[in-house]
Please model this.
Amino acid sequence: MKTYFDCLPCFLSQALRAARIATDDEKKIKKVLDEVGMMLKDIPLENTPPETGRLVYRKISEITGNLDPYKKLKKESTKTALSLYPTLKDRVEKSDNRLLAAIKIAIAGNIIDFGANWNFDLKNDLVEILGKSFGICDYNRFKDRLDKADKILYLGDNAGECVFDRILIEEMKKPVIYVVRDKPVINDATYEDAVQAGIDKLANIISSGTDAPGTILKTCSSDFKNIYKESKFIISKGQGNYEALSNENHPIFFLLKAKCRVVADDLGVNEGDIILKEIDSYNI
Amino acid sequence: MKTYFDCLPCFLSQALRAARIATDDEKKIKKVLDEVGMMLKDIPLENTPPETGRLVYRKISEITGNLDPYKKLKKESTKTALSLYPTLKDRVEKSDNRLLAAIKIAIAGNIIDFGANWNFDLKNDLVEILGKSFGICDYNRFKDRLDKADKILYLGDNAGECVFDRILIEEMKKPVIYVVRDKPVINDATYEDAVQAGIDKLANIISSGTDAPGTILKTCSSDFKNIYKESKFIISKGQGNYEALSNENHPIFFLLKAKCRVVADDLGVNEGDIILKEIDSYNI
Model:
């Protein structure tokens, strides 16, 4: 997905939020705003938003000296998500379609986000999302391809959300490679977060090699890119991964909540919709 | 009110919205974003937000060549507001406290705003606001000072909103000087808008001399400043006028809806609250 004009004020809002989490020093916060404001004119609109996000969040770390401002929030998110795990498992148990229930739970986990849409209330939003219909639901194709797949490449998104991913992984009953970011960026899941969520007991966790808030292939490691190229069934979680990969020609299913108008418009859905979408290049 | 950090991304969002209304030329819209992004670092935080708003909206006019992008929207707002006038008058007629009902209606008109909070639905929002309790309600002091006043200086805010102001002016039954902006800025009311709303039949309409989206005294005409200084009872409508005048030492009542978190925090109320507030310096 390209960068839209609306992404530019959003980068500045995100920078302010992240700077405040990274430091209490008002001068440093102001410097972040000043420098990100200056950066905006040089953002190539043909780049995907996470490419710019990467530069913005690097700048925040550089100015504030805080390399992982969301560390505490990430741990808390995972803890809260783990406390919800038994209830969510029970929901799957009691559902008529266990796989679809688990998919919906994995998407619901995508509400945990301190980037584009940080104003969430996990428990209340969860109830709302689990009761919601899909904006796009390519379930039959997902089920069909899953049945044929011998393994799954699962691109994780945020810390905390990993716990919800675990529920889907448990239902798919196939070998999974679970991909995390290489270095902390916003509240995106790194190795440590995936392990805290218990993913290590179910899947092989690898790093994509990127420090961007999305799987931007050109910033990923060769090892990851090789695995990606060979994968026949990929699950991509969240907006950042959608933004980075929506124009790829590869067997990807996007599972996300459309949290901002720009992504919703790009998908042709309403803001707030939940999405299970096979990549366009494979729908043709 | 000073400029808060949160105002900076908001200026950029407002600039994008205004640029899109002013022109279809994507290059010009990008130029607005680039230049406003560059301006942010030079904004003195001790200035009030409308001082910066003035510079931002001037920049948009300069780049797009459109001096009055909101002209059509303003006319439509007034037309819609006029269509609601009979129902609103009826509401006053049927109320136990006509003056308080008219005050609430005048505040409700403040939802018409294409600046800080443009995502409004006049008819639906009106029903909601009219059913809402006040966040701050200095009604007794307002009534007391109004009874003693021999004339009223009424600082208007947005086009369309003028129709709602008309209802309050009709209830106060005192001579009114109604103040509009000198030149178009956002959807703020100018002379033409006040006349379209029918204010000229009830009040003496004057210009404050400013082209800022708020009554920033240092940008106002000497004539206006003299009238302001002599006034013993001033009604100030909307956020822009609140932001410009909240630190004054003058007999002002602010009537507004707190449309953004920054203004709500400054007032110590919740976002969305409706406010009838005597200026602090007169509360002591």
Remarks:
- The radius of gyration of chain A is 18 Å.
- The longest strand of chain A covers residues 252-257.
- Strands of chain A lie at 134-137, 152-155, 176-180, 204-207, 234-237, 252-257, 274-278.
- Chain A has a mean pLDDT of 94.
